[in-house]
Amino acid sequence: MHTRKSLIALALIAMLLISLAVLANTRDAAAAGGPGNGQCNRLPSSNAEALEILSNYYPGYWWDHTDITIAVQAHPNASSEQLEAIDHSIATWSDVLERCFRGLITLTNVTGTGNNPQQAADIVVHYVPTAGGVAFGGYAVCGDHGCPNIMVRSDLPPSLNRDPYEPEYLDWVTQHEIGHALGLGHTTNLWESTDMMGYGWPDLGDPVLSECDLEGIAFVFDWAFDGGEPYPPAAGPFDCS
Question: At 61, is the pLDDT very low, low, confident or very high (cuts 50, 70, 90)?
């Protein structure tokens, strides 16, 4: 009997210690996840002056949860290199979010885990090689606490007499659109900026997923760091200086 009681007591103590550890990790993530987190500070800076916040223009265009899922729905003729480029763009965002926010804000690729990606994920990337014509290389159509329609393409109309996007460029375009899906708008100095959320790349240099982009994410998810009920982001633009 004493042995059984001792085991029960030990089990309760172990459960209490685990709960305290989880709570401590959550608080650490919130404390370290905002602007100024050492991991975020190791990201490159960019020449972005400020970032527009999309919820300021589209009510409801913000997230009320932080464990965000993403899936890819690709054209059946997509090459392995093109699919790898899209997967790499997701992995890049996922890794940076994990390093900056220590699990408080996550992006998980759930491609292939359900019969219908539209229902399986918060964000769905549609890769359609010829989508957009001459109008766009990527486009994010998001709504109320979700973004089921990111469109990216690689093939330009024959009339332009240009080669399809290289996989690296497709990766960059997808990263840009995922930034929109997470709530970031464009840089205010749009055409001069090589920030990932600018339009200056690649003509002015390779794009940079920057410290300001992740600080902008913290701004969008400010409610998560408060530990209370979700609320919309404050008025932008978010100043990158």
Answer: very high
